[in-house]
Inverse folding.
């Protein structure tokens, strides 16, 4: 990570109506949103909120097709945001199976890296199995079930997103094989002078 970095940029992507904007508004106001615009303003939260060393900039994306509310962001604009982001939260609705399927079929291949699935509307449904996403995309480190209505896991999901940037596992563990990386193994041997054969 760039030592001159001022904040961790967290981008929310997902299908229309899954709750991306509601999550941002609920996090900002600590209340369930009553009126939800097509897209939330960028939200800057201090490191104290998420118990991290750097603050976070949370950026919403718009999937709305109602051009009278907000013109839909183009795929190119979303791609530019993806490149500029440190971590991406793919938001899907637990009450809409199609949005969940599109996490693996569309969003994860589209963004390729830097993602964390976030299941929204947890207040409306029972537990869900995310094994199929972990099986197809082993580099996904985890997912969070959140609710903008009962405010569950909102702060925790962004703490985790920041942690993946500030304290990454990728240099230490090959997420595909779940084995210690050669560079990390070499560092351990050098630091502790332990033979790990």
């Amino acid at each position: 990570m760039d030592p001159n970095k001022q904040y961790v940029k967290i981008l929310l992507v997902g299908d229309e109506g899954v709750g991306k904007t509601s999550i941002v508004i609920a996090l900002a106001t600590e209340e369930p949103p009553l009126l939800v615009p097509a897209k939330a303003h960028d939200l800057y939260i201090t490191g104290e909120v998420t118990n991290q060393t750097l603050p976070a900039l949370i950026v919403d994306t718009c999937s709305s097709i109602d051009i009278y509310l907000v013109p839909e962001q183009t795929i190119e604009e979303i791609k530019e945001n993806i490149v500029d982001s440190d971590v991406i939260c793919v938001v899907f609705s637990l009450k809409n199976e199609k949005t969940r399927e599109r996490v693996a079929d569309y969003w994860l291949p589209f963004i390729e890296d830097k993602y964390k699935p976030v299941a929204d509307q947890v207040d409306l449904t029972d537990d869900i199995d995310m094994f199929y996403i972990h099986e197809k995309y082993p580099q996904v480190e985890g997912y969070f079930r959140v609710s903008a209505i009962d405010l569950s896991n909102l702060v925790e999901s962004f703490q985790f997103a920041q942690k993946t940037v500030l304290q990454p596992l990728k240099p230490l563990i090959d997420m595909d094989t779940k084995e210690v990386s050669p560079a990390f193994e070499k560092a351990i041997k050098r630091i502790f002078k332990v033979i790990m054969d």
